[in-house]
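Predict the holo structure. Ligand: zinc ion.
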Amino acid sequence: MRVATYRAGQENSWGVVRGDHVSDARELRDAPRTVRELLEATDHSRWLTALADPAARTFPLKEVQLLAPLEPRQDLIALGLNYGIHLDESKGVTMQTAPPKQPILFGKAASSVIGPDAEIRFDPKVTTEVDWEVELAVVIGRRGRDITTAAALEHVFGYTVANDVSARDLQFLDSRQWYRGKSLDTFGPLGPWIVTTDELGDARGLRLTLRVNRVTKQDASTDDLIFGIAEIIASASSGRTLHPGDVILTGTPEGVGFTRTPPEFLRGGDVVEAEVEGIGVLRNRVTVGPER
Ligand code: ZN
């Protein structure tokens, strides 16, 4: 099932995508108003079943504006260096050569999140080294702490695509400033929708690609993850409660801009497409200039 959040006219709604149409939660009496409220509800399956029903009223997708599939409950939990070849290509800057023994977790501000087709915007007075990172993102659907790897998937509602846009000049300033480099406004594209676990399971064997102006820059498989979804959830929930609506970015594979010779960074007018097989394409245009 594909669960999308969108703007229709002057109002936001959410629904289930079927083909090129999306249903409308506003049609259901007492339905949660947002996907995050849906996840926080004790039984979300009844709303989803009703909205997936072929009899549900729908909009053509082309008549609505897709938004980020949910408003994350708190800052995004992200992973560094979780693909072997990316670990290797980054070692000149990160000085890390051996695979990490545990997931390297860092935060990315929830305020950075934007939806499909929204602009990635940066001010060249703040950063001139803006880079891309396609990632599989996990959406938590059930609360838990000290979750075991065996139980981890029961806590996953579904998956979406993330572009962990990163200001490398800020990220690597004075050693490591990951939170700062990754948290600028508009640096957290998510979408185009959430695909539930009944379709994607543990998300193994999915191809991830990223294109800049239709040129492929990243092309890998989630099979190359050093830490899989269950291990990541076990680690992220160790001594810390995960809540419905939390989002975990699982790391990016090789092919980012800063490791290229010469390094490549995003410029105004670029179109970035991050894609994960079985989920969809997350497309954003880059604009350079101070905030409007
Ligand atoms: Zn990342």
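The helical segments are 35-40, 45-52, 84-89, 91-94, 168-171, 178-182, 197-200, 229-236. The two ends are 37 Å apart (CA to CA).
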